[in-house]
Amino acid sequence: MKNQGGISIIEVLMVLCMVGVIAAMGFSSYLGWQKQVRLVNAKDELRSVLVRAQQQATAAANDKSWGIHLTTTTYALFSGDFYDKDNPGNQVWNLQGVEVFSASTTFADGSGGRSSDVLFTKFVGSTVNTGTIELLVNTSPLATTTLDVNASGKID
Length: 156
Description:
It is built from 1 helix and 9 strands, in the order αβββββββββ. It is of the alpha+beta class. It has a single domain, classed as minor pseudopilin epsh fold, CATH 3.55.40. The longest helix has 50 residues, at 9-58.
């Protein structure tokens, strides 16, 4: 008998199946990595705006206190003693693919209640609005990260 040197259709199908399994595992890992990057970026951007609010308050910019207002999908930098959604001076950022868990009860309001605002005092930069901001990926509530604000104004 003569040996024919070729490949069978079964061998081709086996190789295609293996390539498909490897590609699926790689794509799954890529999606997980993308969620983590989204979380890290959102946390860094929010922390940056919190620090900016604290710096503005410490400098008493516009002779006012400064703060951040949280919603589930946005956060806003505002000046004054309270958040006014109609103030054109507010700067608003959208969280893309990430949301704030329980935004309306994130911070203690200093009088035993809960609030979605953190307000930094003029000249000092401290706050009575302490709390932990928990960010999570919209499509995967298991992917979370936190950002703490304490009374001295330290942001971790």
